[in-house]
Amino acid sequence: MEHAKPSSGHDEATRKSSVIKPTRNTAIKCLKCDKVYIFPADKDDCLAHLYLEHRLVIADVDEVALLEEYLQYWEQEFQTHEFEQYCTTLFLDQLPDGTYAKNEKYYLLCDILPQDYELRHRLQQQCLSAALQRHQFELTDRSFSKECLFCRTVINGLRSEYLDHLFEKHFLLVGKPEKLVYVDELLERLETNLEKLICLYCEKTFKDRPTLKEHMRKKGHKRINPNRREYDKYFLINYNRTSAPTNRKQQPQKQRQKRQTSGTEQDDASVDFDKHFARPDSDCEHDSDWSDWAGDGDFPTLKCLYCSQDETQFSTLKEHMVQSHRFDFDAATSALNFYQRVKVINYVRRQICMLRCVRCDLQFDDEELLSEHMAQEAHYSIAERSSWDKPEFFFPYLENDGLLCVLDDSTGDDVSTDVVRIISEDNLANINKDAERLSLENFKL
């Protein structure tokens, strides 16, 4: 098996390394030891091993394209570098199994590191290129031949004709041909489920084929479940998810525009000390330059969790979310402590920014479609705990998020005397020990 050459700098992330051709049995070595795992079957075991043995967590691991090549790249890097050189370091007062221990060190590998972001982006583009090439082939290839999933009809020619037959004759909605890719593999997956008497949508198993067909007809289950992530690879739109590194995503659009307009005339090489460090009682003409200073009586702008509405009062913002989104912030978070609400807010911010439903994680093309879906499905919520209760959501998703600053003023925040410490490289905070169990039962890799 070929390995990428170790990198010594930032630019190495974009190089043309030896490319793994992922198969159903790809051997991947642990990032730090000699243990080997066979992907994709041992994926969860490998990630669990990294967490339990090496205290390493990979952020948004389900979003990494070509995970095998991603792990191979970092395995080469960590042969000559320590985790601290690339990862965010955390200190928690407990072991991976939840046992209490003082100042245990953990590592978070995420795309806030430019090298990691560029690697993820390159792998995503590689997957996109391969998917587009395959998609073009499937749209024009006329050598396709396959027997129908439900009847004995054999369809020869284009794959689109086969999909049209499934819909017109059997009302099975798989997807539009122009939006699907790897159609052969998708059809094989559906055929396997039907042979095992498994419903395509709810995936319940039935005793015989007539019962299964009657169930799918009555329940309207003649379609695939869009909430099942294993079907994501068959929809072309999922290969074009663009994301920016964390430090870029955290910058609000209004602040970027403000800096673009007011910061173009500044010369980085020359600093005006009279302008930036003038005494408050001086007659300086640059008083307006201190307009962004937040005094004791000033409050940051509070942005709605689900739309672009801004308010200056927390109570007004909560009324807006109730009236516009039918979401009661106090009721939804009444059982959560301060630090859990911090993670909830950062999780919701990320989902909305990435145009993904907070509740079912569906991806949309624009904000209007996302809002319409969440309103129709009543998905304006905080999702299941397993979605947001992760260490990565301790970090603010938006820079200077005013909503995080007013959480102390909200109700239902009973501070526990039994707390543990989280120590980052530059930050020190307290968290509730019982709520932050990093055991495999609560922390899902």
TrEMBL record:
Keywords: Metal-binding, Zinc, Zinc-finger. Signal peptide: none annotated. Pfam families: zf-C2H2_2. InterPro entries: ZN622/Rei1/Reh1_Znf-C2H2, ZNF277, Znf_C2H2_sf, Znf_C2H2_type. The keyword Cytoplasm does not apply. Residues 244-272 are annotated as: Disordered. GO terms for molecular function: zinc ion binding. Residues 197-226 form the C2H2-type domain. Belongs to the ZNF277 family. This is Zinc finger protein 277. It comes from Drosophila lebanonensis (Fruit fly). The lineage of its organism: Eukaryota, Metazoa, Ecdysozoa, Arthropoda, Hexapoda. The gene is LOC115624780.
